[in-house]
Structure formats: structure tokens, C-alpha cells
Specification:
Elements lengths: L1 H41 L2 H15 L7 H18 L5 H30 L6 H17 L8 H23 L1 H7 L6 H15 L1
Helix pairs in contact: 2-3, 2-6, 3-4, 3-5, 4-5, 6-8
Length: 203
Amino acid sequence: EWFWAMLQFAVVTVTLVVIYVQIRLQSASHVVHALNAIHARWNEDAMLRARHAHCSAWLSGDREIDPVADYLCEFIEELGSYLKIGAIPAEILWDAHSWYIENYYFLLHDSLVARRESFNDRTLYQDFERLFEVMRAINVRRGAPSDAKSEEEQRQFAEGEVRVTQAFLRLKEQEPSIRYRTRPGSTLRAALVREARTRQSSR
């Protein structure tokens, strides 16, 4: 009798382990799918043009939030909402997008404060700000820089965004010819990266 009891226990244990593994795999698959969707939206034409337009305006001295900047803020606000409901683990989001989240927060911070005061709404872009604080806390845990970005660092980021988005947009317009010229198996993403590196090294 004890043998059958042990056998049942083993079967139940193995079943639970299999279920746990399946849940982990499904969760990982969901996160990968979510990150791919975020990456696609971040590099779609409208977003590339918004990033390019805002950083160009910032470099020219226009630091106000306009509808283009609102478009950027809304996207990052959505990322904060995903984090709030547990759709994406904070550490994974940090790996994938903290560079952009933190730098755009500093580019937009003063205007965000002014916009809240203008509308008398402290909840405006609240998830964006919470997301930034979570990213900065992870910086501290991982030993990454967590200080405020200097004016020079913000300028360098904005210049980089202008160059990269300009290169990506130009290549997207040339996508059919790029696909024709590249070797079999070569992707547009690889071509975009090569073009961005070429443009940066030529400056």
C-alpha cells in the first residue's frame, strides 16, 4: 500500500512540475510578444518622426510640450501602465527601454510640470513618472548611473536620436531596394543598424 501511495505522490509531483514549467514558458512567451510589440511601435514611422521632431525642436531651444511631444509621452505613459498591471516585469523593461525612458524623462520633465500646472491635474503622465522612478531604483541596485542627466548629456542624447531616426526613416523609404540589394537572410533591421553606424562614424 505504501508503494502505491509513494507512486501517487511522485505522479502528482511530476504533474505539478510540468504545469509550473508550462506556466513559466507561457509567461516568458507573453513577455517576448509584448516586447516585440513595444519595439515595433517605438520604431514605426509615426513614432520615428515624433522622436525626430521633438529632439530637433529641443536642440533648437524649443522645450515646450506640443502635440508631438504628447505623442511620445503617451507612449511612455502606456509602458508605465503595463508595468503597473504586471504585464511586463520591471527588470525586463529596464533591460529593453530604460535608456529611452530615462533620457526622455529628463528632456520632458520641466514641460511635464508646466503642463500639470496648466491643466491643474497632478495625475497627468503619472505612470510615466512612476516608471522613471522604478527604472532609477533598478539603476541603483545594479550599480548603473542614477544621477540626473546634465544639459550636455541631454544634448548628446537628442543629437543621437535625430541622427538615428533620420537614418531609419530614410532607410524605411528605401526598404524595397534595400531588400533587393541585401544578401538572402539579411534583414531590414540589420541594414538599419549598419546605416546608423555609418552615419555616426562619418560625423
